[in-house]
Amino acid sequence: ILFGLTAVPFTFSIPILTATKSDLLIVDNNANNAADPGDTIRYTNIFTNSGSTAATNVNFADTIDANTTLVAGSIKTTPIARHDSYAAIGNVGITVLPGSGVLVNDNDPDGGSVSVIAAAGGTANGGAFAIGSDGAFSYLPPAGFEGTDSFGYTIQDSDGNQDPATVFITVSDVIWFIDNSAAAGGNGQLTNPFNSLAAYNTNAADDPGDIIFMY
Fold this sequence. Notes:
By secondary structure, the chain is mainly beta. It folds into three domains: 17-49, no CATH class; 84-172, Immunoglobulins (Immunoglobulin-like, Sandwich), CATH 2.60.40.10; 175-214, no CATH class. The protein has one helix spanning 197-203; strands spanning 17-27, 40-49, 84-89, 94-96, 114-116, 119-122, 128-131, 137-140, 147-157, 162-172, 175-178, 211-214. Strand 7 and strand 8 form a beta hairpin. The longest helix is centred in the last third of the chain and has 7 residues, at 197-203. It is flat.
């Protein structure tokens, strides 16, 4: 009995890890810009995964210089901020409470608590955001926008170590708002409606499938 074998292509991806170590003289008792006995040096190790697969169960070993002594309790890790994804309605935006906020998937390997550095500003595509220390945030897309928008944020732990991440927001189902009691000059958003159909027809860059809400 003869059997034929057929080659089947097989592809896989692996994490690609690199570790970079640097040092900084942070206590220079005699101000000579040299590491002398009694001075303090801070070593920093940065780990980077440039592959397309998450790295798990990673072990790292480092050797202390023979001329130095490890300061007890000084080994710290930065918190880990992970990117976040949300969805929003065009011209409406979203308000996200702490229980669903950006800190839900972030953590501190040291076991401590983390917080967001509160911030407010513009987004990549012209929207606006405000984020609080508890991870809650609000977002308003630019008028008429559909697509993916984003903004960055930074978390920090109790030691002041920080890590940045990005919030991605998919905006769809644009609604144009018209309120005849509103002031003139609106842009059609829920918080700033047009005050007439004429204003809508003149200013709205509406697309097929957009919704008009009049009240």
